[in-house]
């Protein structure tokens, strides 16, 4: 993980609607991952799309563990 590639985003848990700041590592490129909600501990699925040209975040999609992103 490269600290200069960490990007903070305000998001809401799709289970309990708690807001929290999510750090996204843009150096990994586009990928799908899971992170537990800091409030209800439910597994949040995340699809992260990163631009191949500039390395900027193109989209961040959060969903429940059983959803297909």
Give an overview of the whole structure.
It is a single chain. The chain is an all-beta fold and 69 residues long. The chain has one domain. It is 0% helix and 52% strand. The protein has strands at 6-12, 19-25, 31-36, 43-50, 57-64. The strands form 2 sheets. Strands 3-4-5 form a 3-stranded antiparallel beta sheet, with no helix packed on it. It has a two-stranded antiparallel sheet with strand order 1-2. InterPro entries: zinc_ribbon_bacterial (IPR025990). It holds the Pfam family Zn_ribbon_21. This is CPXCG motif-containing cysteine-rich protein. It comes from Halomonas salina.
Please supply descriptive tags for the structure shown above.
single chain, 69 residues, mainly beta, three-stranded antiparallel sheet, two-stranded antiparallel ribbon, 5 strands, 52% strand, zinc_ribbon_bacterial, CPXCG motif-containing cysteine-rich protein
Produce the secondary structure layout.
Elements: E1 6-12, E2 19-25, E3 31-36, E4 43-50, E5 57-64
Antiparallel strand pairs: 1-2, 3-4, 4-5
Organism: Halomonas salina
InterPro entries: zinc_ribbon_bacterial
Protein name: CPXCG motif-containing cysteine-rich protein
Quick structural gist:
With 69 residues, the chain is mostly beta strands. It has strands at 6-12, 19-25, 31-36, 43-50, 57-64. A hairpin with a 6-residue loop joins β1 (6-12) and β2.
Q: Give the total of beta strands.
A: 5
Helix/strand/pairing category:
mainly beta
- Arrangement of strands in the largest sheet: 3-4-5
Helix content: under 10%
Number of helix segments? 0
Q: Could you report the average pLDDT, rounded to the nearest whole number?
A: 90
Succession of helices and strands:
EEEEE
If you compute it from the alpha carbons, what radius of gyration comes out, rounded to the nearest whole angstrom? 12 Å
Shape: globular
Low-confidence stretches: none
Query: Major beta sheet, specifics?
Result: 3 strands, antiparallel
Count of folded domains: 1
Distance between the termini: 24 Å
Beta content = over 45%
